[in-house]
Every structure is written in structure tokens, then in C-alpha cells.
Amino acid sequence: MSGYVETFRSNVFPWETDVVEHFTVAYYYEKFAAAGDRALLALGQDPAATHTVDWHTRYQRELRAGDSYHVMSAPISAEDGDLVIGHKLYDSADGTLCATTEQTVLGASASPDALVVWDGPEREVRPAPAWGPAWVRSATDLVIPRDLDRSGRMGVDAMIHRFSAAIAQVLVQAGMTPSYLREKRIGYSTFEFQLRVAERPVLGEPVDCHSCFAQIGRSSMRMVHRLTRPTDDAVVAELSQFGVHLDLDARRPSSIPPDLVERARQMLASTD
């Protein structure tokens, strides 16, 4: 992997897994953020002088408690003051590629000869849902000390924790209650994130999350979550999340029951 450097290596600890019984997405982002800082340092850049505004992540194979993994990173684009770092997360035991992410960083640069050709999944354009009655409040919260990153503002992993909590609220309203998920041994498993960060709230700021369904398939569902600041209704971050109705025992997608599909479709937001 010419041009790539190792930027993170660790194991999945039990407390980093979720109700779907695998490595939870917020901890992926904690590690990717650390990998981004290591990549910037390797390029002679100061991570504290930068700001990440966009992430595109594809989850390709799950990791479970006890699994070992490592991240390889390289600059893949540098234009108009934006640096894009490509990260690849591998299972250290067998070398399988488990996840990729493209991280867009403002305030950083790289020389043309440092760039590598990115061969990760192509980013698909997802229609943006318009605000409307289909949106539901899915989190009411406050930025607390453990949410802060090295900049003293809300870190990306803390944002993902809020979005993860929002998922359960949305699923409940579509009939996928905790009892349904437990009794049927079902989970919602994410395979794609497209995250935009406009601002990072500071300690003590209130934050709300509003969510909707944007697409419903036979076994897949796309949600969109908007983290807002209620003091001025500003959208500080928006996440498009695509996932599947997962059979927890077979570890594969399963069909969503028709009555639940119908309930979810009643919560579909119109697209711009």
C-alpha cells in the first residue's frame, strides 16, 4: 500500500459494542478521528489548526468484541484549501477490509506527490429530505465534558453517539420497538454514513436531534438525522445513515415485515 501509513491499531473492547452485538459506529469515528490526526502529523500538519467538515464512511464487514484491527491512511485529494484523507480499517487477524472513510479537512494541505489514488467505494448522491411533519424529535441533550475533543468542542464521536441514540427513537415510531428487536433477534445495522459538520457545539450548549426516514426498501432503510442548536435552530451537523434490518443470529439482512414497512413509509420525508 504505497503512500499509506499506519495511523491506528487496537482491539474491540466489550464496552465498545452495542445492542447489535458489534463494534458501534461512534467508536469507529473515535478511532478514525485519531487516525486523521496521526495522518496530519505524518504530513507535517498541526491537527489543532484544522477542522473536519465531511465524512463518507462505508462499513463492509462487522467487527465484534475481541477482534483486532488497524487503520491505514493517506492523503487522496488536496484542492482549494481542502485536504481529503482516505482511511482503510482492516481486521488485523486476516487482513480483510472492514470499513473505509473519506475525511475532508479544512486548514490542511499535502503536496501532489504525496497523494494516492483512492480505490474506496464511490460516494453516491443521496436526496436531501425537506423539513416537514415527517420529522420527529429523536434526542434532547446537552454537551458535557466527556463530549469534548482536543479543540474543546463537541467531538465527532460524541455527535455519532447522539445519532445512534436517535435511531432507537425513530425505530420505535415505526413499530420496531425494543421488545420487537429483542424477541425477534433483530437489529439495525449501518452500512453507510454521509456526515456533514457545520459547527461544533461547546460545553454546556443544548443540542437536539430531529430525524426522518428518507428511503425504505425490502430490508434496508435510510434515515437522516439533524443535530440542531435550539437557541437559534441552526443545524450543526447532518447525517445520512443507510442500514439494514439485520437477523442477529444469521448475521445477514432480513425482510422488514409488511406492517412495519407501511408504518415507516408514513414517516417518509419528501426530498428536495
Overall description:
Helix content is 19%, strand content 38%. With 272 residues, the chain is α+β, with helices and mostly antiparallel strands. It has 2 domains: 1-123, Roll (Thiol Ester Dehydrase, Chain A); 126-272, Hotdog Thioesterase (Thiol Ester Dehydrase, Chain A). Strands 1, 2, 3, 4, 5, 6, 7, 8, 9, 10 and 11 form an 11-stranded antiparallel β-sheet that branches. A hairpin with a 2-residue loop joins strand 3 and strand 4. Helix 1 packs antiparallel against helix 2. The longest helix is centred in the first third of the chain and has 18 residues, at 25-42. The chain starts with a strand and ends in a 7-residue tail after the last helix. The mean pLDDT is 95.
Features:
single chain, 272 residues, alpha+beta, Thiol Ester Dehydrase, Chain A, 2 domains, 4 helices, globular
What are the SSEs and their pairings?
Elements: E1 5-11, H1 25-42, E2 51-59, E3 68-79, E4 82-91, E5 97-106, E6 136-142, H2 156-173, H3 178-184, E7 186-197, E8 206-216, E9 220-229, E10 234-247, E11 252-253, H4 258-265
Biggest sheet overview: 11 strands, antiparallel
- Give the radius of gyration: 19 Å
Low-confidence stretches: none
At the fold tier of CATH, the topology name of the largest domain is: Thiol Ester Dehydrase, Chain A
Query: Roughly what is the average pLDDT, rounded to an integer?
Result: 95
CATH superfamily of the largest domain: Hotdog Thioesterase
**In whole angstroms, how far apart are the ends?**
40 Å
Q: CATH class of the largest domain, anyone?
A: Alpha Beta
